[in-house]
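2 proteins. here.
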Amino acid sequence: MFSCHVWFLLSGLIGCTGNSTAAIWFSVPESHHVCLPCGSSGSSDVIWTRQDQEVLVTRRGGYKTNKDRRRYRLMVNGDLCVWHLKESDHGRYRCNQQLVAELQVLTGRDYTVSAGRTLLLPCSGSSKPKQRWFQQREGERREAVLTKYRNGTVKPERGGGRLSFTNDALQIQDLQPEDAGEYVCNGLLQARVTVLAAHAETSSQPPSTSTPPSPAVVTAEVGEIKKKSNTRPENVLLLVGAVSVGLMIIFLAAVCVLLTSMKCRRRKRRAAAAPTREDTELQPWTTSSAPTEGEDLETPPLCGETIHYASLGRQNWRERPSRSPPEQSHHSVIYSSVISRPAARAEHKL
């Protein structure tokens, strides 16, 4: 049964398409390329759009338009080849308003793809015309899956007809859980593939009008949640470490202040306990009358004269003129007496 689509381009471009085909759900690594079939027959007029808004290429007779000639190439049969894929190329592609493909752009080496999609794996890093592909499932031995010879002959070694060599890459149609694992081409690791549960939008069931979240987006969100959950313990450890260091610094500062105050108190106590010279200096006086104004103060005492001394704390035996002892209050007083001898006076006269 044929379906006619009427659409307008520039000055009333009209086209009719038939033989609608089921949409293909491609998953292709970035920087690679993929060719999307138009699915229209019997019409030379073609218009390709992405996400129902962006017009990529058009052809009406001999008139053509191309948004980016370096990346978009319109084939003679109406197919569209997209080169140097980027993440922004993700989305749904329509040819003459008919949905023909949904493109998922993969990044890195770890790919998470829903079951039922068509996966392309290019042999990157190897310039040999012959390509030898192996798959290694977790816990199993490496197994050969496909060989492409120099003359272009392709020999699938397993997969039940789902494996082929298309778009210059190993193509796995209707991806299944047993397709998960590591893929090696000519001894070089190309990808680690994880297959999710069967996707609601397969090649045999056209998608609904609402746009479901892409598996890549879902995987990214799950990865962000895991990343946040993994970083929480690290943040807690950092916080605990910072608090511990702060408490240690405060403790050390308190100990230093305490030691300094104790040292200052000890110094004050020693200074207060040490007697001064004025308090301990010997204070002599005699029982005789006080010397007159013209009397020699250094004249030794007469024979038999007794000289008394008073001191605080320690003795000072230096002889001084006799005088009345000063008032000593609030101190303990040590009294001493010295009796001069005649021999000492005679020697003084000589």
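next one coming up
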Amino acid sequence: MESEKKSHAVSDVGAWAMNVISSVGIIMANKQLMFSRGYAFSFATTLTGFHFAVTALVGLVSNAAGYSASKHVPMWELLWFSIVANMSITGMNFSLMLNSVGFYQISKLSMIPVVCVLEWILHNKHYSREVKMAVVVVVIGVGVCTVTDVKVNAKGFMCACIAVMSTSLQQISIGSLQKKYSIGSFELLSKTAPIQAISLLIFGPFVDYYLSGKFITTYKLSYGALFFILISCSLAVFCNVSQYLCIGRFSAVSFQVLGHMKTVCVLTLGWILFDSQLTLKNIMGMLTAVIGMIIYSWAVELEKQANAKTTLPIKNSLTEEEIRLLKEGVEIALLKDVEPSETKT
């Protein structure tokens, strides 16, 4: 039992580490690809379509080779999930374009309370006081790190609301679909990735044209840009798989809290690699966020221990004595049923 717990903990840490490393790596690769001083590839939605196309190809090869088993999930649920996921991607892009960086970061921070409320409404899930306190500390810390100027307009506010709601629903749906159909994270991803890839590659260029005023057909592709596109797509496979793995293992709220560690890593790497400014305010915010994450881990562990104490042990097998008594009871019941018919004859 102890070895099982240890192996489970190791796999949890591995899934989370893969998500953080791949997410931070893809942000660094995309920054070099999209940066005006880099390769100026300003087609974020279409690039996401490339990501899901490569992910779908990996899933297809894995199924064909027998490394993963395909389980049935109704097509309407896959379509609904893909629509919500694509709304999340498009909404985030529009929110970043129409809003200030400060308001964009606030909208991302609001996902934690939105996920909590949605899980309470949809799954009747309740959170302890310690968990709520830890979430507040994390939000304050990341807010201090990232939020600068805050400017709001009507269109930007609507796009931010759509992005937050759709992203929160997507993350909750990943966990509920895995539990509902007993399907693994990679199997679910391999089913949804083709639908997302096709829709994003069809509509993505038009969304990017609205965002940047340029069609992807006018972009002059260089070997350097192609190299970073391939790097970005490769990292996207690990990022997508690890996201599904993490939400399957943790909850949507835990994934959001742990996800803010990526923000801290991105700020640090931006300072190291891209000469981004790192002020005392950023450092204090990062330290507060890390403390909040530690408190959150402690609070979740307390909640698990409390639930384990209140849950009564369930018997999985009968003893030999119970089986004998059960057989005797069945025999007596059969004799009672037979006796009236014998007296009549």
